[in-house]
Design goal:
The chain is an alpha/beta fold and about 350 residues long. The chain has 17 helices and twelve strands. The protein folds into two domains: about 130 residues, Nitrogenase molybdenum iron protein domain (Rossmann fold), CATH 3.40.50; about 170 residues, 3-Layer(aba) Sandwich (Rossmann fold), CATH 3.40.50.1980. The chain has a four-stranded parallel sheet, sandwiched between helices. A four-stranded parallel sheet has the order 9-7-11-12. A two-stranded antiparallel ribbon has the order 1-2.
Length: about 350
């Protein structure tokens, strides 16, 4: 009997210790979660104390309206965006996914990112996402009780992923942001692993054209990295800027074999093939003679800028520039899988044609 009682007591003690340990771990976990949600360090290097609840957000940067929509799983918390972001929305594929996005206000933020703080106060956002050089605006927002969170204009994929993860932390959507950035890393690593093979073959001379004013992507443009990563040689890599305006004489001298057309302008391949732009003669450019001019895709946002769909932009470029090397994926299948995984959307073949600008690029 004594032995049995001693055994019962020992078991009881073990259970108490186990329960206490679990309780301690749970409290520690809760403490870490609470700590993670109460403050973040933004892309301006500021420690930001977050509101207890975030029901409304305003978004100054143009690309980030779509990114925040993607990470948050909808537009339910977005109350104000840049009018340029709304213009992009209207010409993108996103209306098919979220018609209610069209009702978001654009009256409080101008195209040049100026914030009408008094007007924004009427919408009562707890958070305003701004660029990391908007220090004056940050102080104005804090003065009226709106918490500013600074984002960085990504010049590389690491900056882009940091921004995505920061948004996830602020909105309590860490898992969604981590899943998305993991896909970004996976796709980039696929192309990095092909570097040795790329180095052994000739690169296509490519040019990224922003608009009909002949503004091209230079060395500091993220597209310069994407072009090189996917087996192209950017003819404007010697220009140490994000975008540089050049002339037809320079383009003729470069003579690109492939030209990409941005969605920041309405210019399409046919405009170059038919020499429709006044004062410009494209007839002697190899990319034009061989019909290798491509309008960049547009999904929930322009693929030109660092965005949620940048991995798809990389795959699309690879399939155009080095189709023999990058033949172990299918951009259409990957696009369909991406939309299902991250937007819970089932794309049709017609939807994919629309996103990839198949009509313009045929």
């Amino acid at each position: 009997m004594k032995k049995r009682m001693l055994l019962v007591i020992c078991i009881g003690l073990i259970m108490c210790i186990a329960i206490a340990g679990c309780s301690s771990q749970a409290k520690e976990s809760e403490s870490k979660t609470a700590e993670k949600l109460t403050s973040v360090v933004d892309q301006g290097g500021n420690e930001v104390q977050l509101p207890e609840t975030i029901t409304k957000v305003a978004i100054t940067p143009i690309p980030w309206a779509s990114a925040i929509w993607a990470i948050d799983g909808g537009s339910q918390r977005i109350v104000s965006i840049n009018p340029s972001a709304m213009a992009a929305y209207k010409t993108s594929f996103m209306p098919e996914l979220d018609p209610s996005f069209a009702t978001i206000s654009t009256a409080e933020i101008t195209k040049d990112f100026t914030i009408n703080v008094e007007a924004l106060m009427n919408l009562k956002p707890e958070i305003a996402f701004i660029w990391n050089d908007q220090t004056a605006e940050a102080e104005q927002l804090k003065a009226v009780g709106i918490t500013p969170v600074m984002l960085n204009y990504a010049e590389n994929l690491e900056d882009l992923k940091k921004d995505l993860l920061l948004v996830g932390q602020v909105l309590g959507k860490e898992d969604e942001a981590e899943k998305l950035t993991a896909y970004h890393t996976e796709v980039e690593n696929y192309f990095i692993d092909k570097k040795a093979e790329l180095d052994s073959i000739s690169k296509k001379k490519v040019m990224y054209l922003r608009n009909s004013k002949l503004s091209v992507a230079g060395a500091k443009n993220i597209n310069n990295y994407l072009l090189e990563l996917t087996g192209g040689a950017n003819v404007a890599a010697g220009l140490d800027k994000q975008w540089s305006e050049v002339n037809m004489e320079q383009i003729l001298q470069w003579n690109p074999e492939i030209i990409y057309l941005s969605n920041f302008d309405e210019i399409v391949p046919e405009d170059l093939y038919q020499n429709k732009i006044e004062g410009q003669d494209w007839s002697n450019i190899d990319a034009v003679k061989n019909h290798r001019v491509y309008k960049t895709p547009m999904g929930i946002y322009r693929y030109d800028a660092p965005c949620v769909e940048t991995p798809l932009m990389i795959k699309w470029m690879g399939s155009i520039q080095q189709p023999e090397l990058f033949k172990d994926y299918d951009i259409r299948k990957d696009l369909k899988a991406f939309y299902k995984a991250f937007f819970s959307a089932n794309l049709t073949d017609e939807n994919i044609d629309t996103i990839l600008k198949v009509d313009a690029n045929s």
